[in-house]
What we know:
The chain is mainly α. It has helices spanning 2-9, 16-38, 47-68, 80-105, 117-149. Helices cover 74% and strands 0% of the residues. Helix 2 (16-38) packs antiparallel against helix 3 and helix 3 (47-68) crosses helix 4. The longest helix is centred in the last third of the chain and has 33 residues, at 117-149.
Amino acid sequence: MIKDFLINNSHKHASKWEVLTIEVFITIFNFFLAYVIRFGITLDFDTTNLLYQLPIITGIATLSFLLIGSHKGVVRHTGMKDAYNLFLAVTILIALTGFLMASSRLSLLPELLNIPVSIICIHYLLNIISLTTSRLIFKYCYYYVKSKLGK
């Protein structure tokens, strides 16, 4: 029954909005993970700053992914163009995050938006690696399932 379902639906692809949602959730998780890594793999940091910054990072991430259109590619056909689009979207995200941090340090924005540079850098690297890897994993899982169930 499951085999028939997967074979009959293997030609379909994930909605671009589903892909965008997954990209944003990965970005949010990576931001939390960047905090954890920055503070020595512990949860010993001021969560008030994190909770204040998460909605802003979510909005900026959504905006950057929508601007570049990284969510529009069909995941099972992921290639270098998709990796490049993810790279551009994450670079825009980090540039805007850096702008917020600089504005906060110049007292133009609230102090709670003062994100440490190390967190911004860690977040950038985590996003590049995890977003590209997740696309490739979904692509190879799709082909694996299709080849195993198509027999």
